[in-house]
Each structure stands twice: as C-alpha cells, then as structure tokens.
Amino acid sequence: MLTREAVQSDLPHLVTAPPGPKARAVIARDHAVLSPSLTRAYPLVVARGEGAIIEDADGNRFLDFNAGIAVAATGHCHPQVVRAIQEQAGHLIHMAGTDFYYESMPALAERLAASAPGGVPRRVFFGNSGAEAVEGAMKLARYHTGRDKFIAFLGAFHGRTMGSLSLTASKTVQRRKFSPLIPGVTHVPYPDVYRSGQSPEEATEACLAHIERLFETILPPEEVAAIFVEPVQGEGGYLVAPPGFLTALQALARKHGILIVADEVQCGMGRTGRMWASSHFEGFAPDILTSAKGIASGMPLSAIIARADVMQWTPGAHGSTFGGNPVAIAAALATLDLLESGLIANAEAIGRHILARLAEWPLRFPNAGDVRGLGLMIGIEFVRDQTSRERAPEIRDQVERLAFERGVLVLGAGKNTIRLCPPLIVTRRQADFAIDTLEECLKLAQRG
Ligand code: PLP
Fold first, then answer.
1. Residue/partner pairs of 215-219 with CB below 8 Å, 24 or more apart
2. So what's the pLDDT on residue 169?
3. 3-state class of 442 per DSSP?
4. CA of 339 to the centre of ligand 1 (A)
5. pLDDT digit string (tens) for 108-162?
6. What is the number of other CB atoms lying within 10 angstroms of the CB of residue 259?
7. Mutate which of 37, 38, 158 to test ligand 1's pocket (most atoms within 8 Å of Cβ)?
8. How far apart are CA 229 and CA 271, in angstroms?
9. Residue 161 has what pLDDT?
10. Which residue in 97, 257, 314, 447 is deepest, having the highest Cβ count within 10 Å?
11. How far apart are CA 66 and CA 29, in angstroms?
12. Contact of 153 with 136, CB cutoff 8 Å
C-alpha cells in the first residue's frame, strides 16, 4: 500500500515492476478485443492521473513526460478543469452546436479568435479531433479558393481520416492499403537543418526552391488551394521550422493566392511557450489555424480558426453533431484561464531549462545527435555516431523502455527521436528528475 505521503509526492514511485499483475490482466483482455491497429510502445495500464503523475493499475506512479501525447496541457485532472466539467455536466451535456446556440461557444471562439497571430478578424469552427479540424480546413480552403490541390510536407502528420491521411506523410504503415486517397496532394521536404547539414537559411532556400520548381513543371500554382504546415513538425520528430522559413513560405503562397494552414494540433495551446507556435516566427500569420489536443485538457475538442474573410461558407456547408460540445467547451475555457495565468510562462521557463541541460548531450554522448525544441516541445534525436548521423532507432526504443521501467513516461516521434512534451504544469524538480533518469537510461543503452 502507498502511504499518503508517497501518493502526494510529485516524483515517480514504483511498488512493483511494471506491468504488475493487475496491469497484465487488463492487457490480456485488451489484446483479445481491441483493434490490433493500436500502437502501445510499452505496457502502461493507466488507473488515474494527477498533475504530471500517472498511477497505473498496480499502484506504480510515473512522471508523465508525454501528457497523453501533448493533450493534458494543464496536467491530469486539474481541479479547475474538473470543476468546470462537473458543473457543466450538471446542467447541459449536449445540444448540437451546429443546430442551436449556447453562450459558451461564442465565448470560447472569441478568445481563440483574439489570440491568433496576425491581428485580423477571425471565425471559428469547432470539431472533435485534430483530424476533423484538418479535414474541415481542407474543405474550407477548397471552398474559399475554388481550387482543388494541396501541398503538404514529408514527415508531416495531419490525421488518419481519408482527407487528413492524404496530407499525412509520416510512416508508410499509416497509408499502406488505404488508397486511393484524395488526389492532388503533393508532398515536399520539410527543412531539416540537422539532417541536411545545411544552415537554416540554406535549408529554407532549398525547400522553397523545390516548391518553385514544382510550380514551373508539374504543379500549376493557380490550382493549389492551400499549403498545410506544422510550425513544429510533431510526429515527424519534433523539428522546429528554421527562423525565416514560414514567413518566406507565406510570401510565396500569397504570390499565388494560396492559403497557408498552420496545423497547430500538437504545437499549439501554449506548449511552445507562446499560445501559438506560429507567433514565434516574425511576420507569420497563417490564414487558417487548426487546433486540438491540449485545447480542452483531454476533453475531445478541436477548432479551425480562420481569417473571417476566408471562413465564408453557406449554412449547411460544414457541421458536426458533437463539435463544440458544452462540456468540452467548459474544459477549454478553464484550460485557457490556466494557460493565460501562468502555464504558458511556465512552459517557456521549464522548456528553456530542459533545453539548456540537454544542450550538452551531443558533446557528452556519442548517440545523442541533436537536441531541439521550443518551450515544452523538445526532441532528442539518437544516432549511431556524431559523424555519420545514421539514425539509431534501437537506442531510442531502449531509452524509452528503460525510462518506463524507472517511472518516467516518454514517447518516440519520427524514426529515432524521443519527444518530451510534459504537461505545462511540470516543475523544475520534475524536469530535472526526468532528465537525470533519461541520462541514466542513455548510458545504459549506449553500453548496449
Ligand atoms: N495534426 C497534428 C499536427 C497532429 O499531431 C495530430 C495527432 O497527432 C493530428 C493532426 C491528428 O489529431 P487527432 O489524432 O486528434 O485526429
């Protein structure tokens, strides 16, 4: 039994080697009945969560450095979010925002619209998932421009529904056997400063030159509705766009009447130390922004936040039964309150601290190739050695597994990167514990 003191501690505490007997029983039932398409990196069976701590079915407590994949922005079960959900559930759970009005919907839309970069009037559409927001943005871009084609980036992840999957270019397993997808999507390389060995300017230039070449050869620019881009590529390996890239991309798009959609499903909502990752990039103001994941601290909600002159479509052109569900909206309003009253600043401060500590890793560890990130969206890329930069997915997988066995939850992104995306309430003490643990795991993995 855990003592009261141990339960309240903010650091991991393992009472049995995970997965313990209760966890193993759940896993056996799960494997018998759940879709085998689900991907579990390690056998964590979650019983409850509080702040940055997850307790498993056997009473083990873990420090959560993936936050339900960048979702639990305010931490697990933040009392203000829980209270907002409970109060809302007590008087209205659902009434279909597509068909009826309720006050909290414009209240949240006003706040999201005002926060978006660019200072232009915006309109908002609420859905339930990141993929749904991306699908809606694809429809809106076609509707507004009257064009049918899209550009997206290699390594991008935009979702798994047919439309969003057409943009996704993360792993072939996600697309294999699902063709035909939506025609007219062209993928171009995302500027990867570390892998290309180029300077940020050279990487930006190479990517833009690639798109211009397409415009001159196989892709008439006047047929392209939108370019979808993640300001920090998430599933692709936590790659931060080089400083001038997004603004230059926007200039090229504007020249041809093409919309820019910034997919901030993973990198938005304060995670990077600003409300929107887009606003880290001077002069960048996407025409359409998609948000989900952290927006409602775990309740299913997504938003398309578009320039008001772009989001002009006729009643019935788009809708969603559950989109903007009152309970999810209440959670989002509470989440925004918390983000604005300190959590975004905390993400910036703790993120800076983690990055400063990790900066020396490539100098100390031959397998730590690159460390990069913004705020609490940090990637560590593992390689076989610093010279060849050959990817080392097995080192990454080992570090991930060893960390789990020591009570720290991290997940991979891309082929050989570990992502750190803890809840925004994470403390410096917890951050130091996680980095110390990862360091221990890397040393063990390097020994092989
Ligand atoms: N867009 C980005 C950038 C994402 O990271 C994800 C999910 O990881 C999605 C879209 C899809 O979101 P969802 O899984 O909620 O459909």
1. 215/256, 218/186, 219/149, 219/151, 219/186
2. 98
3. helix
4. 21
5. 999 999 999 999 999 999 999 999 999 999 999 999 999 999 999 999 999 999 9
6. 26
7. 158
8. 17
9. 98
10. 97
11. 25
12. no
* Pocket flag, ligand 1, residue 234 (CB < 6 Å): yes
User: Is the beta carbon of 407 within 6 A of some atom in ligand 1?
Assistant: no
* Top mutation candidate among 37, 132, 157, 419 for ligand 1, by most atoms within 8 Å of CB: 157
Structure tokens at 25: 């029983």
Question: Which is it for the CA torsion 102, 103, 108, 113, positive or negative?
Answer: positive
- How far, in Å, are 24, 126, 436 from residue 65 at the CA level? 23, 28, 13
pLDDT in the model for residue 3: 45
Q: Is 131 in the pocket of ligand 1 (CB under 6 A)?
A: yes
- The C-alpha atoms of residue 237 and residue 386 are separated, in whole angstroms, by 18
Distance CA 47, CA 54 (A): 8
Q: Are 348 and 375 in contact (CB under 8 A)?
A: yes
The H-assigned helical ranges of 234-374 are 245-255, 326-338, 344-358, 361-364
Where b means 16+ CB within 10 Å and e means fewer, 301-326 reads bbbbbbbeebbeeeeeebebebbbbb
Query: Biggest alpha carbon distance in the chain?
Result: 68
Residues in the chain: 448
pLDDT of 198 higher than 90: yes
**Residue 324 near ligand 1, beta carbon < 6 Å:** no
Contact by Cβ (8 Å): 81, 334: yes
Number of H helices, E strands in the chain: 15, 17
- Asked, as a colleague might, if the bond just before 326 is cis with ω within 30 of 0, I would say no
How far, in Å, is the centroid of ligand 1 from the Cα of 116? 19
pLDDT digits (tens, 9 = 90+) for 314-360: 999 999 999 999 999 999 999 999 999 999 999 999 999 999 999 99
Here the tokens at position 285 are 């103001």
CA 417 – CA 411 distance, rounded (Å) = 9
Q: How far is the CA of 158 from the centre of ligand 1 (A)?
A: 5
Three-class SS of residue 79? helix
